[in-house]
Amino acid sequence: MSIQDMVDSLYTESIENTSKCEKCEGDDDGAYSRNVTITFQKTPPCLLLNVKIFYYDAMNGYTEKNMSKFDVSETITLKHKDGTERRYNLFGIVFHQGVLAIIGHYIWACKMDEQWTIFDDENVRTTSFDEITSIKNLSPYILVYTVVKQ
């Protein structure tokens, strides 16, 4: 799954309802479902996406970290209400480094002058996008996208 897939999944949501539909009466048990389409009235100039890599495990009683990998896209699009699409370029990423939710380290990477730079406490270095997205145990947590000027 990619960030674009996650963003696209925001547009349509299936809602299950256990009460009867007044028009069609639903199926035999009275349940029905419908799709709701979500649109942006106005797309923002800067888009912050918080990826849910942490979740609460009620069985164990503590917060876990989801270590599943997903593709970070350097460019994504948002669909506007009028049907047009607005493109965004990735500007920065906050990473969580570690395998546990309660222990770890945060690292910032951003694109400056067409080069990616990693800020890891006092260690600052330039690198490639491919390198920062392939570092082991480094999970994208917050993604910052800026709109592409047209």
UniProtKB/TrEMBL annotation:
> Which SUPFAM superfamilies does the entry link to?
Cysteine proteinases
Give the record's GO biological process terms: protein deubiquitination
Keywords on record: Membrane, Transmembrane, Transmembrane helix
Looking up PROSITE patterns in the UniProt record yields: USP_2, USP_3
Record-annotated membrane-spanning stretches:
88-108
**What's one GO MF term for it?**
cysteine-type deubiquitinase activity
**Signal sequence bounds:** none
Per the record, its GO cellular-component terms are:
cytosol; nucleus
Q: Which residues form the USP domain?
A: 1-148
Q: What is this protein called?
A: USP domain-containing protein
The lineage, from the top, is: Eukaryota, Metazoa, Spiralia, Lophotrochozoa, Platyhelminthes
